[in-house]
Amino acid sequence: MEQSFELSGVHCMHCVARVKKALEPLCEKVEVTLSPAIAVVTVKEPLKIEDVNAALAKAGDYSATPLN
């Protein structure tokens, strides 16, 4: 299944790479775009937003809001 998240704190391609690296352990596939700042992940089971934001916080000043 796919889940999409709107990202805050993502301002450049370096941010995109850090967010992608932070989310990779949580899912099978991760796609992150800069404009708009969105992450689309492929997972077997739905991710909890708390887990997503905890992973992002370790990578920097990033946070996510579910889109679907």
TrEMBL record:
A Pfam family assignment: HMA
Classification via InterPro entries: HMA_dom, HMA_dom_sf
Protein name: ABC transporter, permease family protein
Gene source species: Parasutterella excrementihominis YIT 11859
Span of domain HMA: 5-60
Signal peptide (UniProt feature, chain positions): none
Domain of life: Bacteria
One GO MF term attached to the UniProt entry: metal ion binding
Family matches, as Gene3D superfamilies: 3.30.70.100
